[in-house]
Write a sequence for this structure.
């Protein structure tokens, strides 16, 4: 499906658009296809004139320029600006990286509801992102994708991480419906192997990060923030001190106080406060009314 010189870029998630001269489409949206040891999922398939291919498409195709893309797509015949070509947008589907029991727990929870959350972006994120220049953002625990889609619509380059495959499928559909592109990572945070210091914003809205003796999740969260970038962690007030109940034990999870305790002279705490929550109209957790907001900037 991909030429040898493009395969590494596809596998790495760097190439996410292909332009083909097909008599009829050979792939379909939401279809999954195995090629050269990796699996891709098709996000969209469009038939359009070559002139409608954008410079962003050229960059995402792995080609150095528009004419190189034209030559590669022309293997089945000549292409001029009016020639109809098939634009395929896709992403690599990686296997889940993490504890299978964690994935199963969250898959089961999402499967119980047609829609678990409200579908609206979290108010703490909306308030804190106002005025920030859109760059690279990691959405930790993206759920059904409301925050990720909201950020992508505003020009952010979004990577979204989630342990539940059920949730990720819903999130990907949300992104397709919104017409935005998001990189999806199916993994626990400390197993995702994301490039260190590669995000100008790391957003964790009410995350369910499991504690480990070595503090792997906490350190992974901090290590992903680029120099000059912001860590934004929002959680429900009082959760850390609740009594264990119904299978929930706060001692099992990472809380903002634990993250704050790790912030040394390389960080500036810009906000660490309790504030009223912008309460969604529906969805799990809608009864919570107060947030704890931790915002910190990496200085070096």
């Amino acid at each position: 499906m991909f030429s040898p010189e493009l395969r590494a870029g596809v596998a790495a998630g760097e190439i996410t658009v292909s332009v083909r001269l097909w008599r009829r489409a050979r792939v379909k949206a939401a279809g999954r296809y195995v090629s050269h040891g990796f699996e891709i999922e098709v996000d969209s398939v469009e038939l359009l004139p070559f002139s409608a291919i954008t410079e962003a498409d050229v960059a995402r195709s792995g080609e150095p320029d528009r004419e190189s893309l034209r030559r590669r797509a022309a293997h089945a015949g000549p292409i001029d600006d009016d020639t109809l070509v098939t634009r395929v947008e896709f992403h690599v589907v990686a296997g889940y990286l993490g504890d299978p029991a964690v994935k199963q727990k969250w898959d089961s929870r999402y499967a119980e509801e047609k829609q678990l959350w409200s579908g609206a972006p979290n108010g703490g994120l909306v308030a804190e992102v106002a005025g920030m220049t859109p760059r690279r953002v990691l959405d930790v625990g993206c759920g059904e994708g409301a925050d990720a889609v909201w950020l992508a619509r505003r020009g952010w380059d979004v990577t979204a991480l989630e342990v539940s495959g059920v949730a990720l499928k819903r999130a990907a559909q949300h992104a397709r419906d919104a017409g935005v592109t998001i990189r999806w990572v199916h993994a626990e945070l400390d197993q995702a192997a994301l490039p260190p210091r590669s995000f100008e914003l790391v957003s964790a809205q009410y995350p369910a990060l499991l504690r480990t003796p070595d503090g792997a999740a906490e350190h992974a969260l901090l290590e992903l923030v680029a120099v000059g970038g912001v860590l934004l962690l929002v959680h429900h007030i009082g959760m850390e001190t609740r009594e264990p109940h119904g299978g929930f034990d706060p001692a099992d999870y990472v809380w903002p106080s634990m993250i704050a305790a790790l912030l040394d002279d390389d960080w500036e705490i810009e906000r660490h406060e309790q504030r009223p929550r912008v309460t969604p109209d529906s969805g799990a957790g809608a009864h919570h009314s107060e947030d704890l907001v931790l915002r910190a900037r990496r200085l070096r």
About this structure: The longest strand covers residues 38-49.
